[in-house]
Each structure stands twice: as C-alpha cells, then as structure tokens.
Amino acid sequence: LAQAEGDWPEARRLYNESLEIEKKLGDKSSIAGTSHQLGTLSLAEGDLKNAAVLLSQSLGILKALGAKEDITECLESLGNLRVAQNSFVEARGFYDEGLASAKNLGAKLRVGSIKSSLGVLAEKEGDKAKASQLLREALAIFEKLGSFKAEDAGRDLERIDGETREGART
User: Fold this and answer.
1) Where are the alpha helices (DSSP H) in the chain?
2) What is the 8-class DSSP label of residue 87?
3) ∠ Cα 89 64 121 (to 5°)
C-alpha cells in the first residue's frame, strides 16, 4: 500500500522488515517476492545497480524453486531494468523469454504486460509501428480481462499514435 501510494521510504522500510523476518523463517518463496518488490522499488527510484542485484537474487531463488509464473514476472522486471540501462538487446532477451513462458503457462495478464513492455521498448528503439501494434495487442488483452492496466496501455498507445501522426504531417 505504501508503494502504491508513492511513499517509497515507508515501502522500503516495510519490505526490509519483511525480508528480515522471511530470512529468519527460511521462507525462500517470500524472500524472492520481497527481493523482487525491493528491486522494482529501486528501479522506480533510479537505483539501477541495487535493482539489478535484487532482481537477479529474486530470479535465482525463483528458478531454484521452479516458480514458473513468478519467474515470468521477474524476467519482465529485468527487461524493464535493461531498458532503463539502455541495454535494449538484453531487454528484448528477457522479455522474449518471459513472453514465451507466460504463453506456455496461459498467463494472459502477464502476456499482456510483457507485450506492453515490448511496445515501450519498440518505441525507444524508434519503431513506432511495432510499438503501436504491440500496445494494441496488450490493450485488447487488458480490456478482455478487465484489468486496470488497460488505462496505462491506452495512454502509451495514444502517445505513440499521436507522435506517429505528428511525424506524418511534417
């Protein structure tokens, strides 16, 4: 809740407190989840080095546990990290691996989320047509599932389509 409300210092404090408890209990699944959350928080704050450490730790634990659906989420987060680092080839690798896994698992929401992330990547690479296509696919999935993520995908799509129309006029 603190993270969703933008109170990142409080979110970090609570995650760290949870992580200490999870370590004492030896709860590897929860350690992986909390490490992932701390990693995404670090990414949002621009602390890319810490985000890389935490997300990599989380992925290692999840792979050892065989937590396939959680692995797909972590792969997407690692892709997001690589985009933030302007390492687009590596980002695509994480996204492609996560997308293939999400499709195999039938995890439709994660498929939509990764397609949305791939759309943002395509935009950063300058391929507005591919970005628009991927975001339209993501938006259709989100709308079908009634996900709140449809709003974000719609905004990204409007931005890209608006830029594409502006470019065509000049």
Assistant:
1) 8-25, 28-45, 48-65, 68-84, 88-105, 108-124, 128-145, 149-169
2) -
3) 20
pLDDT for the residue 162:
82
Residue with tokens 């935490």: 54
Percent of the chain with pLDDT over 70: 95
Contact criterion met (CB below 8 Å) for 133 and 160: no
Q: How does 104-120 read in b/e, with b if 16+ C-beta sit within 10 Å?
A: eeebeebbbbbbbbbbb
pTM for the structure as a whole: 0.91
The per-residue pLDDT for range 47-60, each reduced to its tens digit, is 999 999 999 999 99
Q: Is the dihedral of CA 134, 140, 142, 143 positive or negative?
A: positive
Q: Do residues 112 and 103 make contact, with C-beta atoms less than 8 angstroms apart?
A: no
Instruction: Count Cβ atoms below 10 Å from residue 95 Cβ, excluding itself.
Output: 23
